[in-house]
Known about the structure:
homodimer; alpha/beta; Aminopeptidase; 2 domains; 8-stranded mixed beta sheet; 38% helix; golgi apparatus (chains A, B); carboxypeptidase (chains A, B); lysosome (chains A, B); hydrolase (chains A, B); zymogen (chains A, B)
Amino acid sequence: MRKLLFGATFFLTSFAFGQVKDEQMLKDIYTMALTNSKSYAWLDDLSNKIGHRLSGSVGAEKGVIYTKQQLETLGLDRVYLQEVMVPKWVRGEKETAYIIDKKNKISVPICALGGSVATPKEGITAEIIEVHSLKELETLGEAKIKGKIVFYNRPMEPENIDTFLSYGRCGDQRRSGAHEAAKFGAVGTIVRSLNLRLDDFPHTGATSYGDLPKEKYIPTAAISTNGAELLSQKLKENPKLTFYFKQSCQQLEDVLSYNVIGEIKGTVHPDKIMVVSGHLDSWDLADGSHDDGAGCVQSMAVLEIFKKLNYQPKNTLRVVLYMNEENGGRGGKQYEAESKRNKENHIFAMESDAGGFTPRGFSLECDEPNFTKVRSWASLFEPYLIHLFVKGHTGSDIHPLTSTKIVKAGLRPDSQRYFDYHHAANDTFEAINKRELELGAATMASLLYLFDQYGID
Amino acid sequence: MRKLLFGATFFLTSFAFGQVKDEQMLKDIYTMALTNSKSYAWLDDLSNKIGHRLSGSVGAEKGVIYTKQQLETLGLDRVYLQEVMVPKWVRGEKETAYIIDKKNKISVPICALGGSVATPKEGITAEIIEVHSLKELETLGEAKIKGKIVFYNRPMEPENIDTFLSYGRCGDQRRSGAHEAAKFGAVGTIVRSLNLRLDDFPHTGATSYGDLPKEKYIPTAAISTNGAELLSQKLKENPKLTFYFKQSCQQLEDVLSYNVIGEIKGTVHPDKIMVVSGHLDSWDLADGSHDDGAGCVQSMAVLEIFKKLNYQPKNTLRVVLYMNEENGGRGGKQYEAESKRNKENHIFAMESDAGGFTPRGFSLECDEPNFTKVRSWASLFEPYLIHLFVKGHTGSDIHPLTSTKIVKAGLRPDSQRYFDYHHAANDTFEAINKRELELGAATMASLLYLFDQYGID
């Protein structure tokens, strides 16, 4: 009986000790992030000194060099580049577009969707027809679509609390709209920007022509939400109005680029790898401070914080800044291919690619025991107002990663403002709040710490 | 046994029915707020058509008329004004300030603190001494302070997650700094802006001379955080440098103003009153969209939402837009005095005065049974990412309100960005996100609904 009691006491004491130790570590992590991290200064450089980092651009190249250099200042065990061939798409001249209503020409803000072909040099003028879904094309049929521009105008649903849900439900218009409309003989498509706010920014993003033969590709562009509202209104008044747009974008040959990688070797299980990541490429309309400069500097800050706290991880911690998430996902695929080739064992991978806003928690891809484990840590996160632990999509770049057993996590920041900036010209450093960015880094470091300490089940 | 089972089943069914009914009502409230509320348009008018609403100003008067008119469109049972005499302080000409370092004059951004006296017409030039607390004045003593300008430079602590905690710990410098320094013969005070961010905006706010005789009042101003950093740096290089500032603000006679009130009569307990509120006055450097235009339009939207949902409250629901929270709190005191005079029974009062950012939950002033009750509703709020239910300060305007038994609640939005804008020239409509504003209104309406349904304990 005595022995048993002693055992129980020992267990409780060590449990309490673990709890106290973890509470203190999280406090240290958050304090370090909020008082002594370089994340915000790094983002300032990436955004304001380098600018946009579309795959294959000079900015992307500079971003690779800069982040590698910065990682080299942190005293990591290894910093290196991983080669990856990426697509190179260029926007060319600024696009122009008009609603042509009898003799009136009304200018509206558009931008070519990434991957789109150009219009002929003189632009395209055609009747325009409004639809609200890809399915509606079938109902209308070739008779009503052929020779016209298709205008996709299904807005993001305002009533969902998670704005990514609304994004997901509208994304097909941008991703597949041109591909589908071309099948019915459309000459171009104009897509309502994936933005919940009414404003004048057109939002770009990747489009795909799927299996369509090249000669059937039609140009496609996004129109600002205000522009979409106006166009829809004008079409109600005059269903026969025409639309003009001109863009000169091009898909060039693939070019060599890099994933940027840094790591701290594990002291107990150096062969078990835990990844923290963001993607270094951005769209070309702005510097991509939220998408995904934030995720990059937060991931770098996770290792910076651990070094500054002199934390010796049990497992190997690796920061990965992926190239080409936006228009190809080549970085993520290459990383996985290299990992397989090197027979690496990844037990954990996390990505921050939902903006630099106040963190609310994590989405997780894992089995039940690990999900239960994460939820058991909820009280540790409570002082930092981290409360959201749900299953769901974690990150596009870590998606390809497979291992015998792996837990994946996606940082979930507050999503209300994200689509105000996403893929648009206003996704700039000014839209970032330093503290929110730092809290995200601390939240990521905290989950990484806990999995490093307690392993995956 | 049969009877008992029937009873239990009935209880469980009605419990489940209540749960389902409440879930549906919250869903309806949030959907209405996000799709069909006027809150954002109201704030646009208040901010962009009317502008700042400092007590006694033309803007405040216009704000009273505008919000009364808008409430009258909602089909409430009663809309009225409540007279209140308010202080009238005017800033006068734009302030100027220089660091004078030998022959160099370096301009720095300052603004007079609300309630401050003017400098002499030619301004004040004096040696400046940096301190970090009111206590430090005692250590230094009159010998080192007399004839000088005291520069309060204790920054807000970055490591607290709740920025209001950091604000609370620095506020004495602004509120009592001049009062205390005057006792030691200082000729003026310059206070580091209560802002966690380094930028060029000076942040105003109320100062008080306490029981100091009028002839001892000294002028006091806030300096931007960048200005404070620069001044501190320059003082390290040259402890003998001087500082110049000039301001022409004045305290005028009190003037008549109003609280704006609208109500829906209760169908079961018309004598039990539940208040939802914000304050209509703002500081004068900007239109006060976050402080507290947001709280006003959210409170108005709560009643708007109930009317649109055709909700018949059990208790009387009252929206109150208080005047003069910023520099006197007269509206709140007047409301309480009138309530006492009319022998009104308030069972619940809520205020939104912490910005229009994404709501996270509520702070509560109530006894344990009611606190437990609120926490029992947590799962109803979970789909809306509302997770914070804590005890603490609720609102300055509802603070004076007493009743036999009353529950008070303060909306707690995300606090990370609040002090970037608080009392500064950038607290404008552009800093507001429509969805975040609407989510706040829905969150307030939801708590009001639940207390209306289930009463207070």
